[in-house]
Amino acid sequence: MRARRFILAGRVQGVGFRLFSVQVAQAHGVRGWVRNLPDGRVEVLCEGDLDSVERFRAELRRGPRHAVVEEMRETEESPSGLFEGFDVRY
Question: Which fold has domain 2-79?
């Protein structure tokens, strides 16, 4: 089990990034959450097996159709095992 936190900057709010993240996470079996940050960035915390997390990461880097991901910071986290799905946090 792997856990990673991503902070994405660029044109990532107002382009469907959170819904995109939920759909991609569900497709790859990744659990966790996504939220908009007040400064215009998007934060994602995910858990899953290494391959799933890597595939999810690659899709986040591309983003949805109208997004432009200019920067993606990534940190390894300790898995909690507490997430049952992937959702949007407000």
Answer: Alpha-Beta Plaits (3.30.70)
